[in-house]
Design brief:
HIT family, subunit A; about 170 residues; single chain; 5 strands; alpha+beta
Length: about 170
């Protein structure tokens, strides 16, 4: 099996160390909470969780839903947070359907480093829109994933529609 490396994604993640005890640096999702929304690409802030556009998306429109609480595992979330996250996932799908008309979605969480989590200490869920034929030869031959829509344009579109689409 061949491996396709994408070190630019890891460089982004590693700039945020895993949350330490008192006085330590924050993880990616803890840091995003304190940044300006448009700088952090935060689409929506709820009571217990937030929706953010992935800065290194697998596809255009790749969103992540994360709790404010710094917990590594789904089982550590309280009921209010779990419920809100499911509602945010549902709304994310509705917004992405309206914005980009994808053919399908991948929705999931990688819990733990062994499962492929890039940020293993802060639980989050990925919502990735998919289109028939979106995995093409460019990624295999050239090691490049072409994205048809710019990140800023995706962010503006999703953020605008977020307030127009019913939950």
């Amino acid at each position: 099996m061949r491996i396709l490396w994408n070190p630019w994604r890891y460089d982004y993640i590693k700039q945020f160390s895993i949350k330490q005890d008192e006085g330590g640096k924050d993880c990616l999702f803890c840091a995003l909470q304190r940044m300006k929304e448009d700088e952090a690409l935060v689409v929506y802030k709820g009571n217990h969780a937030f929706v953010v556009l992935n800065a290194y998306p697998y596809n255009s429109g790749h969103l992540m839903i994360a709790p404010y609480a710094h917990v590594a595992d789904l089982t550590k979330l309280d009921d209010s947070t779990s419920t809100e996250m499911v509602l945010l996932i549902r709304k994310s799908v509705k917004v992405l359907r309206r914005a980009f008309n994808p053919d399908g979605f991948n929705i999931g969480a990688n819990i733990g480093r062994a499962a492929g989590a890039g940020v293993p200490d802060h639980f989050h869920v990925h919502v990735v829109p998919r289109w028939v034929g979106d995995a093409n030869f460019m990624a295999i031959i050239a090691g490049t994933k072409p994205l048809p829509i710019g990140l800023r344009e995706v962010y503006e579109t999703v953020k605008m529609l977020w307030h127009e689409v019913d939950p």
